[in-house]
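In response to reviewer comment 3 from the previous cycle, which asked for concrete evidence that the modeling workflow produces usable outputs, we include below a single protein chain processed end to end. The sequence was submitted unchanged, and the resulting structure tokens are shown without manual editing.
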Amino acid sequence: MRYLFISAMLSGVVCYVSAQEAVVRPDEKSGLELDAGADLRIRQEIMDNIPNTVPPFTGETSYFRIRPRVWGQAKYKNYRLYTRLTDEFWHYTSDSRRVNSWPNEIVLDNLYLDANDLFDGWLDLRVGRQDLIYGKGRIILDGTSYDGSRTIYMDAIKATINFDEDKKNTLDVLAIYNNNHNEAALGGIDGGEKELNTIVPGSKYLDEWGGGLYFKSKELDEFPFELYWIYKRETKAKMANGTTLQGRRFHTLGARLMPKFSETISGEIEGAVQSGEKDDGKSTSGYMGYAGLRYDPAVEWKMKPFVNAGVYYLSGDDNNGDGNNDSGWNPVWARWPQFSELLVLEWRNGAGYWTNLIYPHVEGGFSISKQHKLFTSFGSLYADERDGRGGDTGNHYGYLGTICYDFPLLTNLFGRDDKRGNLLGRLQAEALQPGDYYETSSTMYFLRWQIIAEF
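The workflow returned the following structure tokens.
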């Protein structure tokens, strides 16, 4: 452990010095602005009773994950060039395994060019490696799902058409290509380049590309909404035993509505349908839906409470578990934890592959500030179809409870903005009591603590 903490401390010192020395005031003659910064995340994760998953998630497991990042940018008038480098290395405390140990693989996480307010403000353009997040992340959030939370980037072009001066109605035109490896990487002492797009653990060579249209409207304060059409192509992949996994191409058409019924009551409704085919010509389809109602009491307290009740639905296969996924929902570019870390680790259909789900749940919590929040949820999970991936014949995954507490340790040490000089903490816990879908009755759990330093 000694080298772990020494390396983390050195990373923090380097980040601090870089942030303090690299921030340059705008040149009054040229108008050029230079800026730089860094962050360091240290987290420990502990879990147990996660059934039928691949190493290292077998039995009780505990490890540290250290992720330093450095970034820099240059601005000139309406143009900005941004870049970020990332690394993440692990250290296991539960046994002698040393996967992703320091310094592991330094990767080019972001590199993009912004060109804003083109054609008298009608067009904003972002070209290059970038993070794309839409809505609640049910369709588009993570382009590199298999490397965990190290990166979420997509190699993409995003052109935003602004239909009015105040940008209340916009249309994003997207083109995306995600390689299965990060070719802009240095290192990788634990086996070379890390697979980024793998769905089934052990498969290789999966590339993903596509694009679409995403329209957002805030014209009516009482009824903001979003409409989208996304096309995606998933290429064939190879298993370690040489078996070929079928590729597919499919379309996703959907809408997200966010009505505000009063100052204290609001809602969210999202629905989408999918249609496509596999490389062997077999047709595919899928359905997704969410409906929720939120109450924010009108209180004068500094602590702002809320409660939300909702149902999340994802269609499942009706093929008796033969793996064809003909009618199961495809999560597009949303293979990330969404509402549960536990289910990402356990989910039978692949890494972060959300499908075959009915999830009625309630959520609640409070916020004191942007960096100080408590969130908790409880719900019962069911399979839409008895897909045969569980050991028994039932369709009840079980009862899921989560709690997450974000809190500031130190804030705004440098007095410049809310993105620097912060030391932020998080405590997180999840537990799933299995239902009759599983062969096991042992409670699954996931625990995490983390600290993030922003420089």
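The first strand starts at residue 32 and ends at 48. We consider this sufficient to address the reviewer's concern, and the full set will be provided in the supplementary archive.
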